[in-house]
Amino acid sequence: MGLSGRSGDLLRCVVLADDPPVAARLAAALATTGSAEVIDTAAKVAGLNGSRPVDLVVWVAAGTPIDSLPVHLPVLGVGPVESEAMLAAFEAGAQGYVDIKAPESELVEAARSVAAGTAVVSPLLLGPLLRAVVDRRRQERSQRSLLEVLTRRERQVFNLAARGLSRSQMAKELIISPATARTHIQKVMAKLDIHSQAELVGFAARCGLDTEG
Amino acid sequence: MNPLNDQSTPRRSDDATAEASPTGAVLQKAKDSNKFELNASAFAIWNLCDGKTTLAEMADAIGVLTGATAAETLSEVTRTVAEFYRVGLATELASASNGSSDPLPAL
């Protein structure tokens, strides 16, 4: 029996892990019912995307960075039963998550479901994962409440600084002078007890705000 | 009993014990030995019933994972918790049967 991909052919899985024995074990498990290919960097995933279509990326959480993966590929996270690791996988774009110690059958079933577009979390992992999401959202709300000390204009400056804009870029965006932008950003940092733009970006990320440029 | 709303903070029954099943869990109440089979989503919601997590927070968390809208998830969460209330698997914190007002720890 083979796994069915989007085209009806055997499912093409890429196992993305920086630990070769782990990658080999997962690939072997998937190969029992489909095709799997082990690579070790995200750049190679992108390279495969052209000539050899990939249906699913099996990503070992807390290992290889997932940031540079093509966003349209379904991703199944595999890792420890730790709420932070699970949450990180979903935040990175995974549509499913499986315990790294789960039986092969569970891995294969999850791969099949995620490739077909269905979100998958094993029943025992769903509770801790939801709890982690609730806790994370509370932290974000608590952090965001600190922004209430900012004026409307300061909040605009904060948002732009969080996206990495320079003072001159902020000035252009808000149609103010660079000196005024500088004054606003100084007030923002003083009110939030922040001492650098990098620290501000981290603060914004903890608020759950978009920090992408 | 107050009707459920998005700020309700249900508390799961101390009387029920959970045993994992392939699709979720089976809950059994000690008082009357009644058993309830919960799917994975319902079991996860039951676990969130700690007396301090609101229905809105539960719905929000599910929405984050599934991409569903807040209205869709809140409706589902409310229906599920209402069923817990009906069969005695959860209750409103203020009216907990054992008189305790302490929230439950996370499972």
Explain how this protein is built:
The complex is a heterodimer of chains A (213) and B (107). In chain A, helix 4 links the parallel strand 5 and strand 6. In chain A, strands 2-1-3-4-5-6 form a six-stranded parallel sheet, with helices on both faces. Chain A has two domains: 123 residues, 3-Layer(aba) Sandwich (Rossmann fold), CATH 3.40.50.2300; 57 residues, Winged helix-like DNA-binding domain superfamily/Winged helix DNA-binding domain (Arc Repressor Mutant, subunit A), CATH 1.10.10.10. The radius of gyration of chain A is 21 Å and the shape is elongated. Chain A has nine helices and six strands, in the order βαβαββαβαβααααα. Chain A has 213 residues and is an alpha/beta fold. With 107 residues, chain B is an alpha+beta fold. Chain B has a single domain, classed as Arc Repressor Mutant, subunit A (Orthogonal Bundle). Helix content of chain B is 36%, strand content 21%. Chain B contains three helices and five strands. In chain B, strands 2-3-4 form a three-stranded antiparallel sheet. In chain B, a hairpin with a 5-residue loop joins strand 3 and strand 4. In chain B, helix 2 packs across helix 3. The longest helix of chain B is centred in the C-terminal third of the chain and has 18 residues. Chain B is globular. At the A-B interface, helix 5 of A face helix 1 and helix 2 of B.
